From TrEMBL:
The lineage of its organism: Bacteria, Pseudomonadati, Verrucomicrobiota, Verrucomicrobiia, Verrucomicrobiales. Keywords: Membrane, Transmembrane, Transmembrane helix. The keyword Transmembrane applies. The chain crosses the membrane at residues 12-27, 130-153. This is DUF3592 domain-containing protein.
Length: 163
C-alpha cells in the first residue's frame, strides 16, 4: 500500500497554518504595535519582533501605578517605527540604572528603529528590569526547521514500512 501524500497529513496543514500565522504576525508588527501587560511583566509585538519584558518602574512607560492587567493596539505612527529592518538581530537587555538626562544632548542622533529605541530606554531602567527582543524571522525559523524535520522523518518512516 502506498503512503498517503503529505498534503493529506494533518501535521502538514496544522504546521502550515502555524507558519502562516507567524508570517502574518511578522507583517502585522511592521504596521501596528500590540502589547499586553500584567503587573510588571509584558509582551509586545512591534518592529518586526516579539518583546518580552519586566519593567518595575515607570520612567514614563506605564504611569506611576501599573494596572493589574492592560492591553493596547495602535498604529505605528512614530517615525522610527517605520524604519524597521526586515531581519533585526535578537537582543537581551538588562536595565542600566543610569540617571535620566535633564536635557537632550545636541548632536546625538535619536533612535533609528524600535530595537534601538529599546536599547536606549533600558539604559535608564533599574538593573533588575529585563527585555528580550525576539525577531519574527528567528521565531519563524525556530518553528519551520523542526516542523520540516518532522515531515521528512514521517515521510521516510512511511516509505520505509511500505512493502
Amino acid at each position: 500500500m502506498t503512503p498517503r501524500p503529505f498534503y493529506r497529513w494533518k501535521s502538514f496543514w496544522l504546521g502550515l497554518f502555524g507558519a502562516c500565522f507567524l508570517a502574518w504576525a511578522w507583517w502585522d508588527s511592521m504596521q501596528f504595535s500590540s502589547w499586553v501587560s500584567w503587573r510588571e511583566f509584558g509582551a509586545n509585538s512591534d518592529g518586526g519582533a516579539i518583546e518580552l519584558f519586566s519593567v518595575t518602574s515607570s520612567y514614563g512607560w506605564r504611569g506611576s501605578s501599573p494596572a493589574e492587567f492592560d492591553w493596547n493596539r495602535s498604529d505605528a505612527t512614530d517615525p522610527f517605527k517605520r524604519l524597521v529592518p526586515v531581519f533585526p538581530a535578537p537582543l537581551l537587555l538588562r536595565g542600566g540604572g543610569e540617571d535620566i538626562p535633564l536635557a537632550s544632548e545636541n548632536g546625538t542622533p535619536g533612535p533609528v528603529c524600535v530595537r534601538d529605541n529599546w536599547k536606549n530606554s533600558m539604559r535608564f531602567q533599574p538593573p533588575r528590569d529585563w527585555l528580550i527582543f525576539l525577531p519574527y524571522w528567528l521565531v519563524l525559523l525556530a518553528f519551520i526547521v523542526p516542523w520540516s524535520g518532522f515531515l521528512i522523518w514521517r515521510h521516510r518512516r512511511q516509505t520505509k514500512t511500505t512493502p
